[in-house]
Amino acid sequence: MKTPRPTLLALVPLLALTACGPGAVPLDPAADAANPLCAYAMVALPSSLAGLTQRETTAQASSAWGEPAAVVLKCGVELDSAPVSDPCTSVNGVDWILKPADPQEAEAREQSAQGTWVAQTFGRTPAVEVTFDAQQVPSSTLLAELSSAVAQIPQQQQCTNLADSLQDLPSSS
């Protein structure tokens, strides 16, 4: 019977320690996660986001930051193509639709800047969706730090607000 090599024995405690880490964040991939444009955005993602360290995930075209995950990003999400009434904001040339993750809170007239929020790109296919804990990560920091990576996906449309749309209508005089 052959005895194990000393180098293999030295690795056993190291392997046991790495198994105790946080591990990959379990996620399901977005419907269009295999879209090649997602790859461009994914390789450009920051390794640190709002001071949180990037983590592995179990889904293609996704990422997470923080322990536990305070930010989860998915590329390839399918969005409704109908006009939206949710607030739209442009950060460094990337348009985002922001709303609370809880549908009941999203319908409320007064929304709190706390809890879990969702930011979805507008006018980019495939779309990127970011779910985040607003108490741990301010949306302004988050969206600014993600904008250069998301900008790797070409923009086809821009957000407009109602006032801009009304100005574009022909006058009836």
How would you summarize this macromolecular structure in one to three sentences?
With 173 residues, the protein is of the alpha+beta class. The protein has helices at residues 6-18, 36-43, 103-107, 139-150, 162-167; strands at residues 48-49, 52-55, 62-65, 71-77, 88-91, 94-100, 116-121, 127-133.
Give an overview of the whole structure.
Mean pLDDT is 82; it is low at 3-20 and 163-169. By secondary structure, the chain is of the alpha+beta class. It is globular and about 40 Å long. A hairpin with a 6-residue loop joins strand 2 and strand 3. The longest helix has 13 residues, at 6-18. It has helices at 6-18, 36-43, 103-107, 139-150, 162-167, and strands at residues 48-49, 52-55, 62-65, 71-77, 88-91, 94-100, 116-121, 127-133. The chain has one domain. The N and C termini lie far apart (99 Å).
Give structural attributes.
173 residues; alpha+beta; 5 helices; disordered N terminus
